[in-house]
Specification:
The structure is a homotetramer.
Chain A lengths: L1 H19 L4 H25 L1 H31 L4 H5 L2 H18 L18 H4 L4 H41 L8 H12 L12 H17 L1 H13 L4 H9 L3 E2 L6 E2 L17 H6 L2
Antiparallel strand pairs in A: 1-2
Helix pairs in contact in A: 1-2, 2-3, 3-5, 7-8, 7-9, 7-10
Chain lengths: 291, 291, 291, 291
């Protein structure tokens, strides 16, 4: 009995490395398969939304959809089983995403109309970033994140200013242009102001009076100028957040050992226990050979 | 009598800290309430401008509007009363904004048609920046302001060049495209040129002749390129204006004592008198406990 | 006779300082008057182009136009007379601009139809930059110019790439979308490509086929991304070209003595002869007092 | 026989320098001729696509086209002949481009309809960069390339995020706006989202519902903000990749000797053999004088 359990434990550990890890060939293949499945399922959802395609190939699309959903369901339960502490995964961001990615399809079996929710699975794409850990992406992405986090409050102040400008000028344009020129309400005028300030410029609403056009010109030049502010902030923060060249290469050459209790990545090559929860780390080569 | 006056004085000082300060819990709550009121009042003004909503809920909106206006009126007089030198506040930027925020409503009671001016109160949003003083916003905002102030003359030169280009090319397009293609006057042609140069591109006016389209392409690439100029300027100035890391943390940990005579913020923790006007600073903890 | 000539010479020198210099009160007033005249004349030209205004106030506009033209003619001849070497001015950039600014009006007296050329005078605005020499503008403008000059070849390479992309994708879209969707010729397709790449997006031509929209999306993201290139170049060059703080202040405090032979600005405070042509410099205070 | 062969060899070497080199007067002239031919041929292709011009001048355009094609064919065979190892050229990027540039015309002689492919020759423009080697372009272009290469993975992460946002918001808008407002399918909604996110804003599809406009405003501000990210990345990478001033001038003053076996550029002035393949380098001055 103990023997069986031990073999099951070893299988669980091996599966954990394949599913959560990215530094073994099997782990890489698993991630690539998931990535392809995600892209395929998004394609199916998109094609379904195009009426003429859906009419012709409805059955093929539906069957593909079900196959993908079942594969994702298997993946979901595999992820739960191979974790020592399944709730850690279930309640995590990716755990919820994974659940949301399979639920709508089952719901759609009972209820019709919730089908559209299936696009929520595009959020699953976020998990693909894990594959990129293989490459030097992690250093860069985390650097970007640091820069954006550091710029956060400054960009908030900037957006705050943009909103105040939009409300003031939007209200002003509502008074100047009036309903006859398409500025039917203040929210709509604010919508137009932001369309202009961000240099999008649909043209569905456009000022007709001379004064309105003068103010429009003012907003455009303002918008053209203030785009410099977030750019300046991010550039400076990003320049500041650049990692040391030496540190980066070390980080790249190391492949982390993922703890199958708390999912923490242990970069220390000599680590035999997770630095976070103390769980013994499963060292692939040796442990597999000597069960 | 003196006893009563002293208690009134103490009440005034306490109220001053609540209204003008942001570093006591009461002061924070006061600011949050004002912030909510501002947002609510802007929402009401917006909803009023949407015809179908106004028709249905006219009375509710009007009553809400009056309640907010009365609350803002109370706030306005509180701010005047709790200042030792009320004119200091009344004639300040925020004092005028506060007055402008309540006046239109009272005026609208006598005169119909000035109602729209109520949106001027969106300027009140500027006061919300005071709440942010709690956080590290002040360092950043002032840094941004420094960068923009330093870039001012350079950006003026840049805008100057943009205007000369717009006038020259606008006039040229008026000659090339002519009235039949929507370029009915030079101001309108200049309007189109700026719409194109800033990459807004409404499409309400678009060149039809080959030469006109060629010049349009030229303007677009020019506009696409010269956006680099303000961005470059702001980035460099911003990079230059970065405060010393050490200074910033000190600034963040300190909560200023606001003088209730001149409203100056005293960051020196040991200060008992305003460094600006010499008025004794009201030190919350001790003074409140020992009246 | 010699006495008269000498007084004429002194008058010429004084007039030269007023007209070409900016560091005497009279020189500043002269520049401000010219600036106002330029702005007024541009306003007149603009108003003339608006049909309804021209119909009503045609006579007033025409008279204003003639008065301005005569004043500019006087200024032109004053500039020629007060130079020791008039051809130096006549053949300079500003000399040609000044001539072009007055010629069209006289030509329009003889020939009808050349009237529109009057807008060429907007180029006169360029001379306004001289006023800005008063302030710290010169340092900044020249710094910007240095940055742009240094970025020149890199931006040329960038524009070169933009043009190749436009030609290739424009031709592709002509094949994909075809005449029925508004892509009537390759030049027109290229026009559309640049409209999209620079994120202007008029919407007068828009892809209708699925493949066309897919390529459009590709161009948009490309355009969105490559705007980073000129911005990066200008920012780096601008950061590099920043003048030494110490040098700048010296430059600002000095008011140059303008040589009335070669128009060179002599910044050396002790200079009595032009460093460029050796002509004795007219030193306002002393020379005027001791003729 | 040996003598003839030797003279042919010398002619080949001289031709090789003219065709592949840019640092002899003849080589420069050759490149300029090719450049003019390329521009002329693109102009012809463009004019052919404009219906009214093609109808009038069809014969002239066709003859010009054939002349250019024949000249390009001669150039193509010259390039093959003058290489010691012709396959090196034939299978290179430029070799394929050169072939593609002449093939469509010959194909169009047999098959009608492939004529449009002639625009592929605009890719030939890429070869024009070789001319620019004369000037200081090479340093700059390679610096730009270094910066872009270094930013590659970061920009990929950025585009990845843009795509996820587009898919999620596009699907959302499809649900919110629906078919009656132009959002007929998810791919079309994603197209609209990218049009808005990149601030292009055609206006062919525009949100009509209040919620749709609110989300549109959100996307615009997002797009307006995230443009800062690639700009920040490229700026920082570009700033980092700036070459040493001293190295650059050395690079510019040297004119490389191009090996006619492997086409490697030898910058070492004293080199007599190619550092890459060991082939003796043809030293123009001396070798030509002493055959």
């Amino acid at each position: 009995m103990k023997e069986t359990k031990s073999r099951y434990e070893i299988w669980k550990q091996k599966a954990h490395i394949v599913i959560y890890g990215t530094n073994t060939p099997a782990g890489r293949w698993f991630d690539i398969c998931i990535l392809i499945l995600i892209l395929l399922s998004i394609l199916v959802v998109m094609l379904e939304s195009v009426e003429e395609i859906d009419r012709k190939y409805h059955d093929i699309l539906l069957i593909t959809e079900w196959i993908i959903t079942i594969l994702f369901t298997i993946e979901y339960f595999m992820r739960i089983i191979t974790m020592k502490n399944p709730w850690k995964y279930i309640l995590s961001f990716y755990g919820i995403i994974d659940l949301v990615a399979i639920l709508p399809m089952y719901l759609s079996y009972f209820v019709t109309g919730t089908h559209v929710l299936a696009t929520v699975r595009s959020l699953r794409l976020l998990r693909v970033f894990r594959i990129m850990k293989l490459m030097r992406f992690i250093g860069e992405a985390s650097q970007l994140r640091t820069a954006l986090k550091a710029s956060r409050t400054k960009i908030a102040v900037f957006l705050y200013a943009v909103l105040i400008i939009s409300v003031v000028i939007g209200s002003l344009m509502f008074v100047i242009e009036g309903e006859e020129n398409g500025f039917t309400s203040i929210p709509r005028s604010i919508y137009w102001t932001i369309v202009t300030l961000t240099t999008v410029g649909y043209g569905d609403i456009a000022p007709q009076t001379e004064l309105g056009q003068f103010i429009a010109v003012f907003i455009m030049i303002l918008g053209y100028g203030i785009i410099a502010v977030p750019t300046g902030i991010v550039t400076v923060e990003y320049a500041k957040s650049r990692p040391q060249e030496s540190d980066k290469t070390i980080l790249q050459e190391e492949s982390p050992k993922i703890c199958n209790q708390c999912n923490t990545e242990n970069y220390n090559t000599k680590a035999r226990y997770c630095y976070h929860c103390g769980n013994p780390l499963f060292l692939p080569e040796r442990d597999v050979r000597e069960p």
